[in-house]
Amino acid sequence: MDEEKLSAEESQVLDALKEIIDPELGIDLVNLGLIYDVTVTGKHCDVTMTLTTMGCPIGNVLASQISQAVMSVPVVETCDLNLVWEPAWNIDMMSRYAKVALGVHG
Question: Which CATH code fits 3-90?
Fold first, then answer.
């Protein structure tokens, strides 16, 4: 996701999503590369995301946390989460910060 092309409202949503830490990895969802897109249209937000694995046991917990974070942005009144599996998540999608924090080289 190109953060430079986001509107002010979309940047606020992304900042809120950076507060959600994956409990297994200890890194936020944005730096893990799990958030593919954030779109704010009027007072509605769509978040397109994935999980590290299809059988992720904390998927429902994360969905609840994501909805709460998005709805904490003053302009947002409604939110839809779009969980996708394409493209499949891989470690190359992580930020440099996440890779360093997790000891991933390459």
Answer: 3.30.300.130
